[in-house]
Each structure stands twice: as C-alpha cells, then as structure tokens.
Input
Amino acid sequence: MSVRVVVNGIGVIGKRVACAVKKQKDMKLVAISDFMPTSTLRTLLEPKGPLYKTDLYACSQEAVKNFEGKMYIKGILPELLHSGEVDVVVDCTPKGVEKLNKPMYEAAGVKAIYQGGAKADIAPVSFVAIANYEEALNVDAVRVVSCNTTSLVRTLYTTDQAFGVEEVFASLIRRATDPVKSDKKGLLNAVVPEVKIPSHQGPDVKTVLPHMNITTIAVKVPTTLAHVHVVAGKLKKSCSSEELREILRNGSRIILLKHSEGYESTAQIIERFRDLCRPRYDMYEVAVWEESVTVNGKNFYWIHAVHSEAIVIPETIDAIRAVTGIETDKFTSIEKTNRSLGIEH
Amino acid sequence: MSVRVVVNGIGVIGKRVACAVKKQKDMKLVAISDFMPTSTLRTLLEPKGPLYKTDLYACSQEAVKNFEGKMYIKGILPELLHSGEVDVVVDCTPKGVEKLNKPMYEAAGVKAIYQGGAKADIAPVSFVAIANYEEALNVDAVRVVSCNTTSLVRTLYTTDQAFGVEEVFASLIRRATDPVKSDKKGLLNAVVPEVKIPSHQGPDVKTVLPHMNITTIAVKVPTTLAHVHVVAGKLKKSCSSEELREILRNGSRIILLKHSEGYESTAQIIERFRDLCRPRYDMYEVAVWEESVTVNGKNFYWIHAVHSEAIVIPETIDAIRAVTGIETDKFTSIEKTNRSLGIEH
Amino acid sequence: MSVRVVVNGIGVIGKRVACAVKKQKDMKLVAISDFMPTSTLRTLLEPKGPLYKTDLYACSQEAVKNFEGKMYIKGILPELLHSGEVDVVVDCTPKGVEKLNKPMYEAAGVKAIYQGGAKADIAPVSFVAIANYEEALNVDAVRVVSCNTTSLVRTLYTTDQAFGVEEVFASLIRRATDPVKSDKKGLLNAVVPEVKIPSHQGPDVKTVLPHMNITTIAVKVPTTLAHVHVVAGKLKKSCSSEELREILRNGSRIILLKHSEGYESTAQIIERFRDLCRPRYDMYEVAVWEESVTVNGKNFYWIHAVHSEAIVIPETIDAIRAVTGIETDKFTSIEKTNRSLGIEH
Amino acid sequence: MSVRVVVNGIGVIGKRVACAVKKQKDMKLVAISDFMPTSTLRTLLEPKGPLYKTDLYACSQEAVKNFEGKMYIKGILPELLHSGEVDVVVDCTPKGVEKLNKPMYEAAGVKAIYQGGAKADIAPVSFVAIANYEEALNVDAVRVVSCNTTSLVRTLYTTDQAFGVEEVFASLIRRATDPVKSDKKGLLNAVVPEVKIPSHQGPDVKTVLPHMNITTIAVKVPTTLAHVHVVAGKLKKSCSSEELREILRNGSRIILLKHSEGYESTAQIIERFRDLCRPRYDMYEVAVWEESVTVNGKNFYWIHAVHSEAIVIPETIDAIRAVTGIETDKFTSIEKTNRSLGIEH
Output
C-alpha cells in the first residue's frame, strides 16, 4: 500500500519534494496545492513537465479567485485533507505560513512534514534521517531542518560517532538567494554579515543533536549556487586526516570531491551534477573538499558545500516514511530514497 | 544503418554533442576523444554518468602520456579515424585547434563538423538547419555557427521569410563565460565593450544569410546564464506586432515567453528548463520575450535570450545528417532531432 | 551676492548636490533636509565629513519625531522655505515624493529644481545645460533629466549640431542599482530586460531635444559601477570616424577614453576617477570609448559609459544658475561649474 | 630634513604609497618607477593627477624601450638609487619580482620596504606599526605584512594586550580581486576554497606576533570591495562583550561600525569612506561590526572588514620612519601618519 502525499506550497523546495515523491514506489502523489498560479506551476503541469496530470488544488477558499480563468484547480486543500484520501501533507509554504496551516492539518487528522524555515516548536521532532530517524517513527509531525543545519548534522554526527566531537565552530558563507530569485533578492558586490552571534544554525543543530557543542556565524555573499561552510572543531579522540576522510567518505549522503581533480570551486561541483543529468542539477549530498579535511592533534577542519535547493529533499522523503511508519528501519528508508534519487550512499 | 560518430574535444559543447548523438536512432556514438583527463571525462564515464561504457581515445599520440595511470584509453584518435569505423567526426576542440585537426580528418576521409569558434573558411558551408540545410547535403565538412549567430539566423531568417528584412542592428549583451569556468575567467561588477565595430557576429550571420544587412555590437556582462540580444531593424513589408509574434512563435526552435507570466529575467527562463528536467537545463531554443516583440511602422524590435552552452547542439545533430546524406529533407531531420531532445518545434 | 540653496533629500544624488553647491562661489548651502536619520547624514555631518556644520532640517513636521534623540535638527523645512532665506530648493527625494513637495515649494515662492525620476510635467523645462540652458532662464522650476537621458542628450546634441542626426537607436545596459544599495536591491547572475519598447529614456530625450528621432531599449545587468549605452544611428551629413571622434572629444562634458590605453571596461574608467581623487570617484562626464566611435557611410555607432550617481550633478548646478538668472550665458555657467568640480570642458 | 623616498611599482599599492608619502611633512617623494606605461601612470601624472610633476623612472635598462615614444622617463631606477639622492625605496612590484630587486637595493645601500606578497625572509622584520614598530628601528629592510594579516595583527594584538588570547581561528572570506582587475581576474557566482589548511595568513600573523596561537582558513567570493573575517577564539581572561568592544574601539587603526546605524554590509562601509571624500575611498582602518563583538565565557567572536587596497598604506609610511630612525617613538609616528591620512586614532 502506498502512502498518499500532498505537497502544499510549490516553490523551490515544494516542487522538488513533489517530483521526489513521484519516484517512490511506496508513495503516491495525490495532489499539489498552492496559493496562486505561477510560471513554476504552469511548467510542472504542462505535457513535457514532470508533474503532468497531477491534480492541482487551491490552498484555501480565498486562493480560488487567484486561479480563476488562469489555471484549472480541482478543489481546495482543506476539503481534500478531510476527504480521507491523504495520509501526509508536506508543507513547503513560505516561512511563517506553516504555523497558520498547522491547525488545518491537525483538524483533518493528517500527518505533517514541515521545513526548516519553521520554528523548532512546530513539531515534536526536528529531523535528519541518519541522526534520528527512529525518533520520528509514527509521530504526528516532523520538521526537516534547514539546508545548512542538515549539512552540519550529517557531517558532525558522522564524525562524532567515530571520534567524538568536543566542540565545533562553523563559519557559514551563504549563497545570497536561490537562482530563480536572483533578480529580485540579489546581492551584488558586497558581503553581508549576520551580526547577531551565534547565528541560528548552531542552536538548530542541537534540535537534532542535543549534546553537540557548536557555535555558528554566518555571512551572505553574491552567489546563487551553494552555501559553503568552513568547519573547525576539536575531537575527543585523535585520528589522522586520512582516517577522518575515510569516515566522512562513508558517511550517509556525504561525498568527498578532490580539488586536485578539478573541483576547484562550487562551479565545478554543480557542473558535476549537471553532467550526471540529475534533474535541476540537484546535489542531495554534502560535498566535502577532500584535501580540506585536516586533523592536527585533536583539532579538525574541513570545508564543505551545500546545495541549498536540494539537500533536504531526501530527508523529507525519509520523514514521510518515518511518520507513517511504513518503514521502521532507517537504513532501509535511506537506501530506498537514495536509490530513487540516484544518491550512492 | 546508423551513422558512426566520434566527438573530439569533450568540453562544454563536446559533452553535449556526445550525449545528443547517443539519443539519435540513426546515429551511433563510436567514441569520444580528448587531450587529457578532466573531471568532466571522469563524471561522464562513471557508472551513473551519461556516457558510461563509451570508448575513450587520446586525441593524439602526444596526448597518451597525459592519461597514463589516470584514465583508461582504448587508443588514439588518428588510428580510429583510419580504421574505417567512423563516418563523421564532430570537432569541439578549443578555438584554433580545429584547423590543426583538419588535415587529420581529411587524410582519414572522414567527414567533419566544426563549431562556430572556427573561422568560416574551415568548411565550405556555415550552417543553421532551418536556413540552409540543403547546402550542407553530402559536403565533406560543415561549420555550425556560434551560439549568438545561430540565434540571429533562426529569428531573422524566420522574419525575413515572412516580411522581408531591410536591415538589422543588434546589441549583444554577452554572458561573461560558461558557468563551469566562472572561477577562472569570471567578470565581476564591470561591463566590457568590444570596441571594434561591428563585432564579428554580424559578418558571421552573412556566412549563412548572405543578403542580410546586419550590424552587431557586443558587450560582456557579469552573468553566466545566457546571452541577451536587443534586436532592432526595418521590415520590407509592414505588419502588426501580433503578426510578427505569431511568425516567431511558429519559427523553428524559437519559443516566446511572457514576462507577464513570470519570465522577468534570464533567471526564470533557465529555471523553466531546470523544471522541465532538461539534462543540464539545456535550452536549445531561442527564447524571445513575447511582449518585447514590437512593430512600429516598418521598424521592428525584440529582445531574446540565448543559452550559449546548448543552442548549437540540435544544429550539430542536423549537420551530421546533412553531410552524410542519411536524411535529405531538412524538416524531417529537424523533427527527428527535436523529438529526441524534447524540443517542441 | 550668493544664491541661497537648500537640498531636500540626502540620498545618492542629494548628498552630491549639497557638496557641489558648497564649492560654488556664487552659491551658499543654507541647509540640508531629510526625512529620517541615516548613516549618510551622520557621516556627512561629522567633523571629518564634507558637510560638517551644515544646518539639518526635518523635511516636515511629521519627520521631526524620527530625529528625536538621534540627530539634532534646526527646524522644519516648510518654515525655512517661508523664512525668505532660501532662493532655490533642489528636490532629491525618492521618486514620487517630489510631486507631493511641489505645493510646499510653490506656496513658499521658492524656485525648485527636480531630478529625472520625476515626470516631465513637474516643471515647465526639462534640462541639460549644453542643450537648452536658455530655456530655463528665470523659470520657476526645472527638471534635470535622468543620468541616462543626460548622457544621450549631451552626445546626440553635439553630434546633431555638427552633422545632423536622422535617427537613433540606443541599447541601454543598465547598472542594477547604486553601490550602496547593492545588498538590498541587487541582481545576481541574471539579465533583466524591460520588455515594454521603447523604454522611457527615448521619449525623455525628446523633452530636451524635441526633434530627435530616437528609440531606446533597456536591460539591467549585475553591475553597480556604470550604465553602458550602445548607440547606433544615421547622420544627415556623412563624415569620417575621426571627424565624429573629434566633435565628441570637444563636446561639453564628454571625454574619449582609449581601450588601447587600458580602458578595457567600466572598471578601469571608474579607477581613473579614483586615481584623480575625485570625491566619491564621481565621473561627471560621459565617457565614450574612442575606438568604438565608428562611421560607415551615414551610419554611426559608439559605446559610452554613464556614472549614474554623478553625471547630473553639474547639470543641477547649472540649473540653479539658470532659474535664478544669476548667470545668463550658458557657457559661462558651464565653465564655472566645470572648474569647481574638476571637469575639463 | 626629509626622508627621500622612491616607490618602485605603481600598481594598486604603489600608487597609494606614493600619494601618501607626498602628504608627509618629514618625507619627500623623489620619484616613482615602473616597468611600462599604463593608464594608471598616465592618470597620476596628468595635470589634474595627484602625482603631477613627479619624476618617472624606468625600473631597469630593459624597461626603457617600453616607454619610448609613449611616456617621458627621467632615467633608470638603478642609477637613481646609486646617486645618493634616495634614502628608502618602497617596493610595490608584483609578487615574486621583489626578490629579484633586492640585490639592486642592497648594492645601492638604500633601505627597502617590501610588501606582504613577499616571503617573510625577504627582510629581517615583518611589520605592523602598533605591534612591533621598535623592532624595525634602523634595520635595512622591513616587510609590511599583507592586508589580511595586518587586520588580524591589529585586532588580535589589541585584544591580547587587554585580556590575553589563548587561541584563535579565523575564516577569511576574501574579495576575488581588486576592482580595477575585475574584468580580467574576476570570479562570478562561485565560491573558491583554499583547500590547504591552514591558509598562509595564520603563519603570517606569527611573523609579527610569534606567540599567537592562530589558524586561518580562506575562501574567495565574488566581491571586489573588501575582505571579511569571521574571528573566533578563546581569551585567557574573561570579560564582557562591552569590555571587548571598548578595547577594540580604542585600538590603533580600528573602528567599530554599527549594523543598526546602517552598516549592514561592506557596501555601506565603503560608501562611508566615499562620503568622507577619502581619496579612492580608502579605508585604512579595520572596520569591526560592533554588534558582532561577542564574548561568551572565555570564547570571543567578531566579524571585521578589510579594505585590501588601503589598509597597509599607513603601516608602510610608519615603516619608512622606523627604518630610517627619523622617529623612534611608535605612537608619534602613528599619530603623524594618521593625521596626514585622516585616520582618527
């Protein structure tokens, strides 16, 4: 039996989640839902689009008029949720809207997956598959943490399991905005610091890994491709640089790429995923520059890149399995998701 | 029977040509060839890569040592060309190298397709499918013109057929470099004019459309996504803006996108092709902003975008059919190519 | 006797106008006025700032509270204007605000200079010094046209006087925003066309040069330094490229810079004015790339750069002289302004 | 008596040093020297240029021919150095050239100041005025450390004096290139990490502050305005955030700017120095975002900006005084330099 999924909010994350759900053998994309017609919706639903023939719903009664005469909608989301035909709704609406939606999901008795823009208290569990899949089993709602936090949890969890992490400091060099918004929210020839220290990602890591002693500072730079993290920390147990590389190389949804083989910047990393013909060049993995992984005594360092548009997609798929309980083993869920999306491990 | 094709030079254009050849029912990709191992070659040939199991050749005896101990090569290109197992070589080597390769291709009696970086005299025919497919039938060599020239020929040929074009002036706002090279050949917060007027694209259009009265001026700007052309001209026969839009809308490999539907910049245009899951988000079509198509008396204007990495790929495939004569009707070849690449018309 | 000037609105243009007024022997900067305290105001008024000890006024009674406890204000603008101590107010407020201010200026019987963001009907005369200084003599209000329009009027007026201009087409490659706003209104790796053709600058040129037959099309690109115009047109009387260069070289507030001497992009042009130690590197002149000035039969072409922050400053100073009638000869006013700002001719 | 100074190499740093030397009452700019004519040299030496009438020398006999027929040179540098009319040469030649020049300076018995691109062993002392002025007194040669290192030394020395610094980790978010080179060495929409950890700046700090326990990691981003450093460390003696702010606020050549007063990015910081009419908007100070200065237990953090073109200029002037011994007190030299350049403390 398939889990029946609706995606509400078809933006940068929502469209990817919807496409990913369609690729799961144990899931069915019942419908997508949005507030108004957009070029994105039109493209996804046209004959050559990846969601052709998917049912479109207005997210509310108020939104119906936005679609009139422009795009066909099958109905409104609250009614669909109450129909008994939906098991899980993935909320990918803009930051702040999710908490307005929460009562609607709860009233309908539908499980909900929220994204990392939401505050931690939106759901009982903040989630990264490899770190705490079990905690999300059969709960009513889960929050998949943000792209930056996901990348830190994956790599630090992996390091911590092997050698213990005493403390961590990470500088987050953030991409200014998503490529599609770069003409409206762009940044040009300047660097924008977040002067409140620590930035929110450090505390956010602790919603998944409560014992991690981490501080983060963030600056925004004029690029759209990917975030870059400079990570520095102290291990509990010393190891060699090569040992840490090996641990990371085998970590879940982590890849190591060599600067010496041509991965000199985020440009060539993204080009790799264009060349692999990943849809939308999505890099679901954290990409760590292999040579940057350095251990000196108990101090460790590395630099990694985060494709902000894509990294949380596999976690969202796993979260659907966890909350519905259709798969109780985390490794089996991760493996299913990975295979469907072309992720190697 | 399939045309047997080798692609020499696996960079931005070559890798796309190789992938496109693999999608043609009437062609066979015999091998790819290059000068040295690159991250691109490695990615293309790995198990999840689009050219997995394709034979790799060194482009010359001198190049063999570059691959030793790094990537397996099956042999060297000159020997392969002389083996009688290749009908056409597509030369996608860096600008200036193609003329060094020409004697090798001629000595082997293999037909050759060159790219637009080559000078016009490299081949007897400069080529854009819709404009002069017939001229390329069964010739020994063809030069597919550059991305900018291709976009101008497609749109101006179409306009000229319908209303006659008296004269044209185009300003080319060029992307600085390809995305993958943007950390090495980037441009940052400046605009670079080509002060020699006209720029080479105007004369280049005439290699395909000899009677077109065109002048071009080019400037380079800090973007990687696409070139943008501002086109202004005079028609021989007046028409309405809507009539010209209709003609362009039906033109070969031309699409009209509406600013009012969300295509406000090159960012949303490229995002469309990411959402369509085109490999590497390749836009093979010229994208004209619909509202910009304006006719005032006999004066006409429009603005179009050119995906420099991709636009010449379908022309290259058609050129292979033309030089080998396996398809003598241009519309049939164009239709085959379009269907294989997901182009609508 | 000095003309007594107030500048209302201390943003990118207003701060420059205020500093330029201070440099005029026949003018006195009575005060500056603004809506709220900003880092700009603080910097200008600090001991090392260029407007140290200048009186600051709130632009209205409503604005007073914005300054309370933050910056000292001497009073409110309407009262100052009615005091009889002001001859001219230069309105540099954000687009759309100037028309709300107009009644205040008129009620006080103070002459007003508006900027090019205002609609043409804000004032009886739209102004570029070399083209129509005389029309502005002793009128009540003048609108100094925008940076792009100013550059076109200067160069086309000069060309027209010498050879006659039959028609003109200009592509405007616009800087995305001012440097100081580039973290809020930036543009990143995309090109944004204005799809309504013609763009407003063409008609705007005609507010100064009514008989000029001009069409403009604009696109926005990710740069902050300068606009670049690609100009193409037809002369009434043929001439050589060198003759047109000579005419432009001698034109008012036009400079010719050679690509071959290192001016390869807008970056080196701006660096020239940094090296000349112009305040804020302001380039008041239109900079034409010398080699780009090309005449072919009666067709002419050139490429020029416009420092959008600075080009209208000398025109604004001249406009003050014109409306007050303290200088009736345009060449004398231009010469005074030029000398005070370091402009050569 | 004035110290007689020659500047060799008139690029981004050299032109600023020459202009700064001219402003010192106790120094005389004897000449400037370069390898070939450039637009920079032409601009500096034209009548409105800041070095008008300064003597220009070819840097060597071989360079003479580069100037022939292009720019007047008074002679060649080696002869000038041997003439007895020069006390100090400031070498601002491209990285790697300085070590070829060293024997020339030594043979002439002229003291030499090198820049931070040189290796530390070029001179017996690596120099930041506030940290080790005394060590440079009367030595034959001094190396002024690089812009990034200078900013770290100034701030960490200041912190260390007050509270003791146990260890430091800094992430350097580097501007891609200087504004004037951004069309040739630009970077566009990508982030480039230095994968060798630590980057060279950490060890370089130790050439001035040998006991500082510091590690640095650097990434390059698409901006020209300024470097940004994210600094994290541990104090020996705890203090409050406000105490550390106060110490930094009073540090030599350090300024604190408030995000809350409009300094939201490097764009507004640079704009401040444009508004102050600093030549070329040069910011000689390290600018620390005030709100970012945070102490938590013994952990401290801040974010600062470094104007790479300008920060080493005052140090270079101080170095001239130190090596010649005309001023033996560091605070007096710093005060003289500061006053001449408009630096407050």
User: Anything to note?
Assistant: Residues 147-306 of chain D form a domain with the Dihydrodipicolinate Reductase; domain 2 fold (CATH 3.30.360.10). The first strand of chain D starts at residue 3 and ends at 8.
